[in-house]
Amino acid sequence: MKSFTYERATSPAEAAAKAAKTPGARFIAGGTNLLDLMKLEIETPPHLIDVNGLGLDKIEATDDGGLRIGALVRNTDLAADGRVRRDYGVLSRALLAGASGQLRNKATTAGNLLQRTRCPYFYDTAQACNKRTPGTGCAAIGGFSRQHAVVGASTACIATHPSDMAVAMRVLDAQVETVKPDGKTRRIKIADFHKLPGNTPHIETALQAGEFITAVTLPKPIGGSHVYHKIRDRASYAFALVSVAAVIQPDGSGRVALGGVAHKPWLVEKAEADLPKGAKAVMEKLMADATPTPENEFKITLVERTLSSALMDARA
């Protein structure tokens, strides 16, 4: 690990302003991803800004009937919140499907949204990776690609986004609240928060330099049956090969998003019109632009079967 300086922020606006003063600075809260990346020298921030003391660890009702989740709410506390379990069950289930109990006790809401890909070529600094070092190429293309994206990828990157929580928040149409270094605040739709790789896979979110996440808001509950199905290589503590977050209404309509298949939580709104027709019809639109490799084309079938299982559970 390379040397760095450290300080604690006393307010969200101060944290953003401090980050803007030092190019490459990083915020640290739970540190469950960042510290690992620093030890491997994939991330080498010259300065860390500790945001743990900012009081952003509350879950509050909003005036429009939704919930406002502070950026520093721990994943364990969010999954266990009675309002989340009752009205946003897909989110609680997705959180409990991710990581281990120990990691969930430290990981935060904002950090979960910002966790970086688990592509093995990203973690191997001897390999070419446009996400880690722009312009060096992508060793995953033509390499071992079983875990990689089948849709939304580019000729520069085929990595997937690892978060389970983000897939549930996508299906719930969450919004991300931020503060910029100039003190201005804004809201970003979760649909626009994570970026597809294109030619700039190192630019992973819509956040600007120094911009700090303060909360995530959920709209008022939409009812329905909430399910989250995650398929992985072992029973626990593994990232998704394919995951499905779904909220299904009694008439068969609903919303569905996928994890493990793209550079961001994957949702195609026009596919949801086919939910009453079953998994195959939905999958054909969700995966209409898929470009799998020979090693991961099995994900196409796996999406259909996982979605079918999720819909059966939702309608049971």
Features:
316 residues; 17% strand; globular; 13 helices; 5-stranded antiparallel sheet; 3-stranded parallel sheet; alpha+beta
Q: What is the straight-line distance between the termini? A: 51 Å
Please, how many helices?
A: 13
What is the β-strand count? 11
Low-confidence stretches: none
Rg calculated over all Cα atoms: 19 Å
Relative helix content = 25-40%
Helix- and strand-based class?
alpha+beta
Main β sheet profile: 5 strands, antiparallel
Cα shape: globular
Mean pLDDT: 96
Strand order of the largest sheet: 4-5-8-6-7
The string of secondary-structure elements, in order, is EHEHEEEHHHHHHHEEHEEEEHHH
Please report which band the strand proportion falls in: under 5%, 5-15%, 15-25%, 25-35%, 35-45% or over 45%. Answer: 15-25%
Describe this structure in words.
There is one protein chain. The protein is α+β, with helices and mostly antiparallel strands. The chain has 13 helices and eleven strands. A five-stranded antiparallel beta sheet has the order 4-5-8-6-7. Strands 1-3-2 form a three-stranded parallel beta sheet, covered by helices on one side. A hairpin with a 5-residue loop joins β6 (175-179) and β7 (185-189). α5 (89-97) packs antiparallel against α9 (165-171) and α12 packs across α13. The termini are far apart. The model has no long low-confidence stretch (mean pLDDT 96).
